[in-house]
Amino acid sequence: MAIGLKEKKAIVAEVNETAASALSLVVADARGVTVSSMTALRQSARDNQVMLRVVRNTLAKRALEGTDYECVNDTLAGPSLFGFSMEDPGAAARLFKDFAKENEHFEVKALSVSGELLGADQLDRLAKLPTRDEALSILMSVMQAPTTKLVQTMHAVPSKLVRTLAAVRDQKEQAA
């Protein structure tokens, strides 16, 4: 069924708005994937704050104009599934990577982060990015390390003094 001009403009505006606020984009070809598998993928995407859209390439090119993801326009050929990560840059990459393991027909075409186009071979690189909570815990451990080391060092001086005095006492007891 043909889509009218009004509907096309609405799709372009919606995808442009999503792209403007997304942290990363993963483009994939989902030909040959069953409907039940796609339903499961969409459910996982909602759980991980990933916006999935299937858009005609001509509309996608117009929608991505003026955004950081305009660089993927050259890779758009054939049916394309767009996964926009809204809160975690690696969420869509992790989602697509896990889905591709289960579905041999699912193929990632391209990735984009901050206006940089990455090939499909870089999927692991993006998927291994820590989540926000993981990054915060790493940051906190790095910030806590100097304080912990200072406390351990300050505790070591009196401990060493006590051990030395105990050794001197034991030595004098054995001599007497």
UniProtKB/TrEMBL annotation:
InterPro entries reported for this sequence: Ribosomal_uL10, Ribosomal_uL10-like_sf, Ribosomal_uL10_bac, Ribosomal_uL10_bac_type, Ribosomal_uL10_CS_bac
Record keywords: Ribonucleoprotein, Ribosomal protein, RNA-binding, rRNA-binding
GO cellular component: large ribosomal subunit
Record keyword S-adenosyl-L-methionine present: no
A biological process from GO: translation
UniProt keyword annotation of GTP-binding present: no
Domain of life of the organism encoding this protein: Bacteria
GO molecular function annotations of the record: large ribosomal subunit rRNA binding; structural constituent of ribosome
UniProt similarity note: Belongs to the universal ribosomal protein uL10 family.
Entry function: Forms part of the ribosomal stalk, playing a central role in the interaction of the ribosome with GTP-bound translation factors.
Quaternary assembly: Part of the ribosomal stalk of the 50S ribosomal subunit. The N-terminus interacts with L11 and the large rRNA to form the base of the stalk. The C-terminus forms an elongated spine to which L12 dimers bind in a sequential fashion forming a multimeric L10(L12)X complex.
Record protein name field: Large ribosomal subunit protein uL10
GN (gene name): rplJ
